């Protein structure tokens, strides 16, 4: 059995950063499942499809993506990093992600990331749906204000314009959609360790996660 560590949580909780750090530390592969939903949304937009069109599932199924060694994402051979992480792309991803056929189309692609010696997978339903048998499930949360502040700093650092009040509204709207959808809603797995990162440093969260991962016998 190739071990999988799942990290689920809302946008801005720090799960992307923690997933990357854990994967590097353990020498495991990394799955950023949100990137697949974001790329599907961008590919659908490129084809001029409405976000709720049934064809979006075909787009997900046939998605032509690759990730460079430094994590840069390419769609049909074109680097899309400049638009991939914007809040607008996140909102589009959240909309297409509510459709069962889109989720089903991405399942096999996500599971193909399980390769020796192990995988760290981050998303919304990694522990509840995609990797239901994962031996270590984590759920990272933080208050909406703190998540918006983190996102604000990230966007400014990457040279984007940002407005904190608007970000709080956008994050709330995305949270509501991700938590309340009928299929694979954002919810901690029953056996997940839930960590609130609002007032913790990245190092402190990582230490708690490592303790749990060791206790679960993954490493
Ligand atoms: O993690 P992220 O912000 O990149 O994710 C973007 C959107 O994609 C998120 O708002 C909902 C959707 N998503 C999902 O439904 N399931 C996942 N496993 C990952 C992301």
Question: Would you mind describing this structure in some detail?
Answer:
With 219 residues, the protein is an alpha/beta fold. The protein has one domain (4-214): 3-Layer(aba) Sandwich (Rossmann fold), CATH 3.40.50.300. 50% of the residues lie in helices and 15% in strands. The protein is built from ten helices and eight strands. It has helices at 15-26, 33-46, 55-61, 81-84, 87-96, 100-111, 126-130, 144-157, 164-180, 202-215; strands at residues 4-8, 29-32, 65-67, 73-75, 78-79, 119-123, 136-141, 193-196. Strands 2-6-1-7-8 form a five-stranded parallel sheet. It has a three-stranded antiparallel sheet with strand order 3-4-5. The chain is globular and about 50 Å long. 39% of the residues are buried. It binds 2'-deoxycytidine-5'-monophosphate (DC).
Keywords:
219 residues; alpha/beta; Rossmann fold; five-stranded parallel β-sheet; three-stranded antiparallel β-sheet; 10 helices; globular; binds 2'-deoxycytidine-5'-monophosphate
CATH class annotation? Alpha Beta
Helix % is: 40-55%
**pLDDT < 50 runs, ≥5 residues:** none
Q: From the helix content, strand content and strand pairing, which structural class follows? A: alpha/beta
User: What distance lies between the first and last C-alpha atoms, to the nearest angstrom?
Assistant: 13 Å
CATH architecture: 3-Layer(aba) Sandwich
What oligomeric assembly is this protein in?
Answer: single chain
Question: What Rg, in angstroms, do the CA atoms define?
Answer: 16 Å
CATH superfamily: P-loop containing nucleotide triphosphate hydrolases
Number of β-strand runs: 8
Mean pLDDT: 96
């Amino acid at each position: 059995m190739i071990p999988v560590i799942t990290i689920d949580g809302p946008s801005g909780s720090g799960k992307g950063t923690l997933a990357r750090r854990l994967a590097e530390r353990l020498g495991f592969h990394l799955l950023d499942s949100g990137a697949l939903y974001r790329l599907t949304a961008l590919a659908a937009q490129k084809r001029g499809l409405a976000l709720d069109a049934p064809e979006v599932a075909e787009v997900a199924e046939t998605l032509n993506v690759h990730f460079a060694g430094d994590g840069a994402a390419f769609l049909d051979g074109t680097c899309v990093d400049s638009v991939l992480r914007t809040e607008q792309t996140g909102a589009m991803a959240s909309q297409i992600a509510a459709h069962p056929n889109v989720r089903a189309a991405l399942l096999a692609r996500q599971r193909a990331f399980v390769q020796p010696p192990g995988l760290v997978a981050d998303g919304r339903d990694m522990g509840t749906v995609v990797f239901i048998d994962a031996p270590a499930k984590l759920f990272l949360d933080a208050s909406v204000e703190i998540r918006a502040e983190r996102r604000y700093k990230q966007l400014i650092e990457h040279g984007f314009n940002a407005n904190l009040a608007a970000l709080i509204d956008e994050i709330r709207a995305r949270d509501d959609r991700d938590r309340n959808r009928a299929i694979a809603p954002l919810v901690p797995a029953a056996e997940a360790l839930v960590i609130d990162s609002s007032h913790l440093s990245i190092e402190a969260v990582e230490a708690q996660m490592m303790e749990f991962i060791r206790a679960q016998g993954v490493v």
